[in-house]
Design a protein that fits this description.
Layout lengths: L1 E6 L9 E2 L11 E9 L3 H9 L11 H13 L5 H12 L2
Antiparallel strand pairs: 1-3, 2-3
Length: 93
């Protein structure tokens, strides 16, 4: 599962706001845009890394990851199929 992180704008969803220091990738105030959340197969992510469409970054700190996960459940913009999948995976652990 992937979520989108984007620069904070006036009409951005402000449920989860990330600040510089939350992750080395974050250079200015940013938000998680849950409307763009997707379920991706591991093979597709690995292929994107191999062909240069994606770049691997440092892991997200556990506290930040927990905020992002909580936001995924609370956001009114998370696509239904993504939320359902997340809840199924969470219940199985």
């Amino acid at each position: 599962m992937v979520v989108s992180v984007t620069s904070r704008r006036q009409h951005s969803e402000g449920l989860v706001i990330l600040q510089p220091g939350d992750h080395p990738f974050i250079q200015h105030e940013s938000v998680v845009a849950y409307r763009f959340s997707e379920i991706r197969e591991v093979a597709a992510i690995e292929a994107a890394l191999r062909n240069g469409q994606a770049r691997q970054k440092e892991p997200v700190a556990e506290a930040v990851l927990q905020r992002i996960r909580a936001g995924l459940k609370d956001s009114l913009f998370t696509p239904n199929h993504v939320l359902q999948y997340f809840q199924e995976v969470e219940a199985s652990h």
